[in-house]
Design a protein that fits this description.
Blueprint: H1 3-21, H2 33-36, E1 42-48, E2 53-56, E3 65-69, E4 76-80, E5 93-95, E6 100-103, E7 113-117, E8 122-128
Antiparallel strand pairs: 1-8, 2-7, 3-6, 3-8, 4-5, 4-7
């Protein structure tokens, strides 16, 4: 291979890599974590019963939210809606035990989030910005 062609390929790869990593943002994943910062992050722990429970209030400034089901065995269902009546077991986003759900720039929701436990009360740990 010609040295000039090889040099051009190497320089092109370096330019591409610099463009991808210059802001130190994750190459994979949906949230731009550096843009979030740590100021203003709200960490909560909420008990979700087998009746509807509001997890998040509407927040027009929401940039990100992360929901973790801390329970060892029970699932929880969450709906992104302003009507708690639409929340029921087997409806909405199912978060299995020890699993999580992320609201990020790819699926950003500013409205209320309501949840209901599948079989027994569970604790959800959340982060919201």
């Amino acid at each position: 291979m010609n040295k000039n062609v090889l040099s051009l390929i190497v320089v092109s790869l370096v330019v591409i890599m610099f463009g991808v990593f210059k802001n130190n943002t994750p190459f994979m994943g949906s949230a731009q974590y550096n843009d979030l910062g740590y100021d203003g992050v709200t960490n909560t722990s909420t008990s979700i019963a087998t009746s509807t429970t509001k997890l998040f209030s509407a927040n027009a400034a929401r940039k990100y939210a992360y929901i973790v089901n801390d329970d060892a065995t029970n699932a929880v269902y969450c709906v992104l809606t302003s009507a708690s009546s639409t929340c029921a077991a087997d409806i909405g986003i199912k978060i299995l035990a020890k699993e999580n759900y992320e609201i990020s720039a790819n699926n950003l929701w500013f409205g209320e989030v309501w949840c209901i436990a599948d079989a027994a009360a569970v604790t959800l740990s959340t982060v919201e910005k």
